[in-house]
Design goal:
This protein is α+β, with helices and mostly antiparallel strands and 221 residues long. Helices cover 21% and strands 29% of the residues. The termini are far apart. The C terminus is likely disordered.
């Protein structure tokens, strides 16, 4: 029987302090994550979730139309130290575990939820660029769409206690792990339920573009 993955802050794991939807750098990313608090610091370490279906509805009609037509490239190859408050242990864990293999996928910016039919925004920190747009324009659009996702009225904040279990729909949310507990010890365990390949508003499916092993750095003799 396989063990349940454990995110232990003492080993440089679990400080995902950026808004993201889990594992969008693959085509069929997880649909339901389950997270259980095992060892929780006396203060700090909250998790925030945002509702990306509500964020989509908040967009003015012309921006919703634009989002419906856009596609984005997502990848796990990015500068973790720049995007987060990464410690040396965090960076080492990220390089050794998270980017052992480089993935890249194309997703619609708006997917149709397979169960509710709602339209949800598929963005977050794994986005590298929008397809067919210059980098500068794409970055401005990304920031605009993300500002609706992270608007306070579309978010909820959870203050963890040991034994708490959180279950969420990864197809209709983003989340953010607040990195404000310093060197206090925090341990959570998580499992993911496999997801489905997103469908765009016009019925096209997300695709995997790249799946390559990360080049190994040569070691001195």
């Amino acid at each position: 029987m396989s063990s349940i993955p454990e995110l232990d802050s003492a080993r440089g794991a679990g400080r995902a302090d950026q808004w993201h939807t889990d594992v969008t750098f693959v085509d069929a990313y997880p649909k339901i994550p389950v997270l259980r608090g095992v060892l929780i610091p006396p203060y700090g370490g909250d998790t925030l979730w945002s509702n990306t279906a509500a964020a989509y509805l908040d967009l003015p009609a012309p921006l919703r139309k634009l989002a419906d037509e856009l596609w984005a490239v997502h990848s796990n190859a990015y500068d973790y130290a720049v995007k987060t408050q990464a410690t040396e242990a965090d960076r080492k864990h990220f390089d050794e575990v998270f980017t052992g293999t480089i993935y890249e996928a194309e997703h619609p910016v708006v997917r149709v939820h397979p169960e509710t039919g709602e339209r949800t925004l598929v963005l977050g920190n794994f986005v590298q660029r929008f397809i067919g747009l210059p980098k500068y324009d794409g970055q401005k659009l990304f920031e605009l769409f993300q500002s609706h996702i992270t608007a306070p009225e579309n978010t909820v904040r959870w203050n963890w206690e040991a034994g708490d279990v959180a279950i969420w729909d990864n197809r209709a949310t983003q989340h953010y792990a607040v990195n404000d507990y310093g060197d206090q010890h925090r341990v959570v365990r998580r499992v993911n339920i496999d997801g489905d390949v997103p469908l765009s508003v016009d019925g096209r499916r997300s695709v995997m573009r790249v799946k390559t092993s990360k080049p190994q750095t040569a070691k001195a003799a």
